[in-house]
Amino acid sequence: MTGYHAGPGPGHGRRLGFLDYEEERHERKISDRALIARLLKYLLKYKRRFIITVVTVIVVSLTGLLPPYLLKVAVDNYIANRDFLGLTFISMILVGVYLTNWISNYQRTYQMLWMGQNMVNELRNQLFSHLQELSFSFYDRSKAGEIISRVTNDTDTLSQIFVQGVVTLISDIITLIGIIAIMLWLSIPLTLAAFSVVPPFILLMFIFQSRLRKAYRATRKKIAAVTSRLEESISGIREIQSFTREQDVIKDFRQANVENLQANVQAGKLFALLMPAVQIVGAVGMCVVLWFSGILTISGGITLGIVIAFLLYVNKFFRPLVDLTTFYNTIQSAMSAAERIFVTLDTEPEIIDDPDAIELSHTKGEIVFNNVTFGYDPAHPVLEDVNIHVEPRKTLAIVGPTGAGKSTIAKLLSRFYEPQKGNITVDGHDIQKVTLNSLHKQIGIVLQEPFLFSGAIMENIKYGKLDASDDEVKQVAKIVRIHEFISSLPQGYETDVGERGARLSVGQRQLVSFARALLSNPPILILDEATSSVDPYTELKIKKALAVLMKNRTSLVIAHRLSTVRNADNIVVVNEGRIIEEGNHRELMKEKGMYYRLYKKQFKDT
Ligand code: ADP
Questions:
Q1: Host domain of residue 289
Q2: Atom 5 in ligand 1: residue holding the nearest Cα
Q3: Phi-psi category of residue 372: left, alpha or beta, with phi > 0 → left and psi -120 to 50 → alpha
Q4: H or E element at residue 383
Q5: Which candidate, 367, 506, 505, 496, places its Cα nearest to that of 424?
Q6: Which atom, in ligand 1's list, is nearest to the CA of 404?
Q7: Alpha helix (H) ranges present in 347-378?
Q8: Going by CA atoms, what residue is nearest to atom 14 of ligand 1?
Q9: Are 130 and 250 in the same domain?
Q10: Do 292 and 338 reside in the same domain of the chain?
Q11: What's the pTM value of the predicted model, to 2 decimals?
Q12: What is the pLDDT of residues 322-333, one digit of tens each?
């Protein structure tokens, strides 16, 4: 039920997480009506269940309305007339009504749960699939925590509140209309007497509503602060420990946590006040009815049975009224979650296949950049007028200071971003005119910090070629000289590398990623050489493995090693987004320009 228990309470705040900062900051852009229409489509997919639910809701509500009336009949018709048979009969009907209520209530709850969980399931799958297609620029703009929260919390909040909200709304409306109709039918004056407490009740709800909303907002903000501190401390644990900042972090966290506690206690206090207040209004309503019915009975207007029925109906009246008055609030947090989900789902991938895109296959690996200009923000280019030509099977080393634009060149070749001016071709084909899949199959990427997925080493090496045999894996591992190490592990190739490959050293991770690239055997290789130093023994291994890896394919290397630049067929020097020198090692040394200076500074020690 929504209402008392599942309003936008502290529990929901906890699940919503820190995204509510966003909720607070921006007004929602999509109207409630549009969101609800879209959400209903999800529910209507389960048409049969939805109909069963609606029918059971109606049955539950109607069977809930009957008992007071049946009691009236029992009192007025049978007890008053000492009709024992009739009383037995009506008692059995009463039991039947309760049984029907119980069974349909079970069905209603079960179907609601089923639809809610299936909706979560479907939304999560849709979001996850969609996220796989979104371009790098989307991830540049978004925070990982926010995306995760969308897929986990938002879907959950949304479907729970939405499904329950719809069901409760139907049931509340039926109940209220039913109660009012029966009451009016039984006695119009007594109904008017009972309604005398409705205005004070609405005033009460009005006063509590805005305070409760503020209090719950505060709890959501505070739990957001707790979550973000937790998240940062987990990702930054190495820095925290190496700079011995543990105590400060703990202090910060305690502060956020205690504020969260206070906010929750405050909200709880308000909530605890509301319930008795509602009960008091209800009790006053009953007293008014009782007192007024006294007058009416004396004047002969109504029977004892009607009085009893009225007292019970008045008692039932406030619950749906509380639900309905809190409904707007409750549904708002679902709507915010819905909006975040739909905005994500509606984000178009910026880079998609051209309708006439062709499949690129068996490339020789000739790469050309023609006057390429690109900026992550188009107003601020980070590459300007870049021209590069790499012959098939040759190695181009890219050197230059940090932030010069070296990695950006590599990202453009993979078409993770698109240049604002100029174009890039592979074997003469503009990469914007070939399918992304086929382009990526031609290119292998080995990054400075190779990313390994948690799971077996075997699986990690097979990542780029799923149908490879175990023997093939072992062969490439031997070539890059990591086989011996892997075999020495107790579980060999089945050893779990841990999250991001954390259980392997940096050098080992690199060698595994080399094996992975070698196995997929792409005609083009993009290599971002690691700057982090490893021990001389591993360094030697890496150097030899790299030589094997680069053999017989076109390689674009962001070079940090002397051996790489020396052996490269061609070197470009990038500075502030422009290529300022080009040639091989010997030529560039002669020029005594930036390469010469970089070489002296960067490579001399090694
Ligand atoms: P390098 O590899 O030479 O160190 P990069 O190509 O990574 O340099 O970066 C070139 C410039 O582009 C830098 O000024 C950097 O701050 C900026 N940059 C890199 N990646 C992004 C990104 N995803 N969003 C915005 N700016 C970026």
A1: 188-301
A2: 405
A3: beta
A4: strand 383-390
A5: 367
A6: 3
A7: none
A8: 403
A9: no
A10: no
A11: 0.77
A12: 888 778 777 877
